[in-house]
Amino acid sequence: MKSLLFSYQSIATRAFVASILSLAFAGTALAQQSGLPINAAASVNGTIITNDMVEQGIKMAIAQGQKDTPELRKIVIQKYIEVLLLSQQAEKDGLATSEKANTQLMLIRQNYLADLELSTYMAQNPISDADVKAEYNKEIAGLGPQGMLVEYKVSDIAVASEADAQAALNRIKKGEPFDKVAKSVSLAPNKVQGGAIGWVQAPQVAPPIAAVLTNLAKGQVSQAPIQVQQAWYLVKLEDKRTSKPPTLEQAQQAIRNGIAQRKQLEYLSKIAQGAKIIVQ
């Protein structure tokens, strides 16, 4: 379940160890008895850690704020070695065939394939500079005669059914703090922050959310559950402010990200239309 911001976010950011596991399973090969293959960075009991795997690990570390240094490469290789040592020991201990292991390995595979499908789709449908400029002009035109940008400080609760959303709303109406309810029932990652999202603009959220958000008063919670795709949301307007809009140069990366996330959501919706989805 994702938070309402951008509705569907890319699933590419995963726990480092989980990513390493999926890459390690994909890149397993036997080492040559005479030495390592050309593309090998290391091996653990005959299982190869390829340079390609290391490069992907470095990219993930950089995305998390690390600097690309020789020391980082050593750290990444060491992490692969540690993971392989532990996974091989798990095999020896018979843990690999447990129901828990099978479930987690299935999830790792599904997440990887989902990432791969989205990245392939985006590579085949790139966002041009003209797309970014057109989106910027559209947003500027929608600011109104005063040309001011309206931003909303939002918190949300995301659940799987309308009944769950209504139950959460009833608790809030009885006086229970929104953030406390979010921490106890929300399925979105931001539940640990009490559902806090931060400052957003109306075009950055799903249209059903935006329609409600723009009509809320400061401190008010949506009066009914809001459906977006297969999820149900409650939103709270924490605060509201106006400011001068950024220039195209300042806004282009955020706009590009927003377009990408919208395209991903549209693609997912298209796939969902032809799928048979049953929810308990």
The amount of helix comes to 40-55%
Report the end-to-end length measured between terminal Cα atoms. Answer: 15 Å
| Average pLDDT over all residues | 86
* Total number of beta strands: 6
- Low-confidence regions: 1-18, 20-34
Topology order in helix (H) and strand (E) letters: HEEHHHHEHHEHEEH
Structural class: alpha+beta
Can you walk me through this structure?
The chain is an alpha+beta fold and 280 residues long. Among the domains are: 98 residues, no CATH class; 95 residues, Chitinase A, domain 3. The protein is 50% helix and 15% strand. It is built from nine helices and six strands; from the N terminus they run H-E-E-H-H-H-H-E-H-H-E-H-E-E-H. A four-stranded antiparallel β-sheet has the order 4-3-6-5. The chain has a two-stranded antiparallel sheet with strand order 1-2. Helix 2 crosses helix 3. The longest helix is centred in the middle third of the chain and has 26 residues. It starts with 15 loop residues before the first helix and ends in a 7-residue tail after the last helix. The N terminus is likely disordered.
Q: Main traits of this protein?
A:
280 residues, Chitinase A, domain 3, four-stranded antiparallel beta sheet, two-stranded antiparallel ribbon, 9 helices, disordered N terminus
